[in-house]
Each structure stands twice: as C-alpha cells, then as structure tokens.
Amino acid sequence: MSGFFYEIWPHIVGGITLLTNLLASGHAILHKRETRSAVAWVGLIWLVPVLGAVLYVILGINRIRRRARALRSTQTRYRSSANTPYHYHKNKDALQDQFAALSGLVEKIVSMPLLHGNRITALINGDEAFPAMIKAIDEAEHSVALSTYIFDNDRAGMLFINALARAVDRRVEVRVLIDDMGARYSLPSVTRKLNRAGITAARFLPTFLPWRMPFVNLRNHRKILVTDGKTGFTGGMNIREGLLLNEQPRNPLQDMHFLIEGPVVDHLQKAFAEDWVFCTGEPLQDERWFPVLEPKGAVMARGIPDGPDEDFEKVLWTVHGALACAKSSVQIVTPYFLPDSALIISLNLAAMRGVNVEIILPSVNNLPIVKWASTDLYRQVLEYGCRIRHTPPPFDHTKLMLVDSAWTLFGSANMDPRSFLLDFEFNVECYDQELAARLEACIHTKLQGAQEVTLEDVNSRGLPIKLRDGIARLFSPYL
Fold first, then answer.
1. What is the pTM of this model?
2. Cα separation of 24 and 22, whole Å?
3. Eight-class DSSP state of 424
C-alpha cells in the first residue's frame, strides 16, 4: 500500500497544483481590468507554481470593493426628490454647448440629475466657515445632519458640540456621524462629549480588532452639514481648531468650504441619510429631513457621491470628462497629488492641446511620504506642458478644480488613489461663470507668493532624494 502511495503522490500533487493554477489564472483573467496586470499575474502563477497562486490570493484580489459592496448591499437607497425641472438649458452660447456634453456624461456616471436654482457661497478657512455653520445649526427648527471625517476634541470641536446641544435643547432632531478613524485624531474622543450632551452620534465602521484592519481603507471621508433639509455645507473642512487662523493655532492649516442653498441640498442630505441608515439602521425619510426645496440662485449643480462600493470611480471619471472638455484652462488645487497613469495621460493630453493646465499644491505637506511620492511624479506632467505651483505655508487642504472659467468641482476628494478608490467621498459639480470667477479670484490670492516648479528643479534633485521619492511612489496606491 505504501509503495502504491509513493507512486501516485507526485500525480496528486501535480493535479492539485494544476487545478490551483487554473483557478487562480481564471480569476485573474476574469477580474483584472488592465491587460498588463492580468498577464503579469498569470505569468507569476505559472512560473512559480502554488506560491504564485498564493501571492495572487493575498495581494492580487481587490477585497476592498468586495467588502464595501457586501457591507452596504442591503442598505436603504434614497431617491432624490424631484424638486425642480433639471434639463440642461441649451442656448447659442458656445460655452454652454461645450459643457452640455459634460453634463450628460456626469449624469450617466452618477445617475443623479443636474439641478437648477442653487446659490453657492465659498467660505475661506474656519474663520468664515465655522461661524456660518454654527449659525445654521442655531437657526435649525427641525433637523441637523452632520457628517465629518475628523471631529477634534478642541476649541473648534466645542463650538460645534455646544451648538448641537443647544439644538437638542430646542427639540431639534440631531444626527452626527463621525468616521471611526477620524474620531481618533484627538484623545479622548469627542464622541463621549456628544453623548453626554444628549446628541445622537454614531461612528462609521468602528473597529478595534487587528483582523478587521482592512476597514482602514473603507473610511467615510465626506464632510456634510444639512440643517432643516434646506441649508447645506460641504467641501474639504474637518472640524479642527487649526482652521481658525485668526486664533493663531499651534498647527495652522488652510481650507475651503461651501454654503449651498437650493435643490441640490437634496443630494447632500441623500448621501448623509444613506450613510446614517447603514451605520445605525435608522431611516431618515420624512419632511423634517427632505422638505420641498425652492430655487435660491442661478447655479446649476449636482452632487457626486462616490465610494469603493460603486461599479466605477465616479469622481475620477468626472475629472477625466472635464479634462477632455477643456478648451482654454484647467486649475486644480489639491493637498495630495498622486495621479495614476491614466490621469497623467489626460492631464498631458489637455496641455498638449493648448490648454493651460495648472496644478496648485502646498509647498509644505502634513504627510511627508505623500509629498515625496508626489514629487517623483512631477516630471511625468511637467515634460508635456502642465504647470505646477507650490503655495506658501500654512498647509493648504483645499480641494478645487476649475475648467474654462465656467465649470467647478469641489468637495472631499483629493487627487489620489485613496479618494478615487478606497474611501467614501462627496463632491459637487457646478456650471456657473460667476461662481467660477469668484473661485478664480480665490485661487489668484493663493498664488500670491507661490513658486513655480520647473522640470529643471525636479531633475536637479540629488540621487539620495530621487531614490527616497521613487521608493515612496511605489506605495502611492495605498497612501
């Protein structure tokens, strides 16, 4: 019997190896979108039998999107209320005709309508944004919905806690959602103070277990405040005292937020309500949260919720579409710039068509490794005509994109793989020349004292710096 086993065991091992390689190769062929990635994994699987398949199972399968879909597959989905007609007005203005195609593209990407009749006001730093947000909370009569990535336990945090507590005392329905990772930026966490004040609060995907650390890539990075379902705020701002520059904080930072009034507030509230029911199971559906919205201004706008549970990257595809439509100018303000190869190509094609592409980044970054990785990518856009500007300190956390002085994109998403692929984000696209002109003026102010980065600057880095930056770039998909 033992002799028979010794004769057949190589055949058993060979059969198992063949089956393992076939299964792993089939999975790579069916699920890898990029041909080069599929070829590389299939080659590794067959050149290094068993070990190659094991490495593919560990490193090659995108569990982030699968996990996100599984987590949110059964949650309540909200439909935006039909508050106003939302067809795109065509006229003889060539600029409007230019962006009609972009509007149609984004509607297919997002499956949400472009809404007319909005008023959007830019708020610079916490000195402007926080008082406006506190005022909206103090004036709320029915509901307050607040979602943030970071809610620090500091002076700024106490401003909001006190305002939210006052709303609770007035019998206003208050719901606060904080990302679990973001809640840990300050200790002790602010959630205890919220609970003591009688404020209903929840954490997004809380976990203290090492084997659940994949949730580090499923963060709720959205920043949304909606009061009475009518007044909204969104943008890049967390709740941190460093944004109160007039108070001369220890760690100052710049940012931009937006006050939104009109029908598109419904898109903000919808995104919050879906996140809230996912975390707590409580639906928010009556008129306290979703009232009828009246026109407030002339801006056409649309919310763009995005996350790893989606079929494709909504914000990233929107950015690609906007770059393809650009005729004269593109301005991108972002704290973190880690474009993938496809986005680099889109930027370069725009520049080579004669579009003035400006990428505006902070000279000082709060994440050095991101700064190093970003610097290593500069050459790939500079050599084809894009321009890079470094703005002076303090660190600028603003996220803004302007195209042809008419189209605007703002919100929580950075120009990096984490925002495009791994986190839940919320952005707003706007079609309005007056709004774009005001934001161009804001960018002009940021560029005062800015330094242009040239190809010579990048090439003149010393060898140790180039190696450091190049090694950091290898981790860019995870930064």
1. 0.85
2. 6
3. B
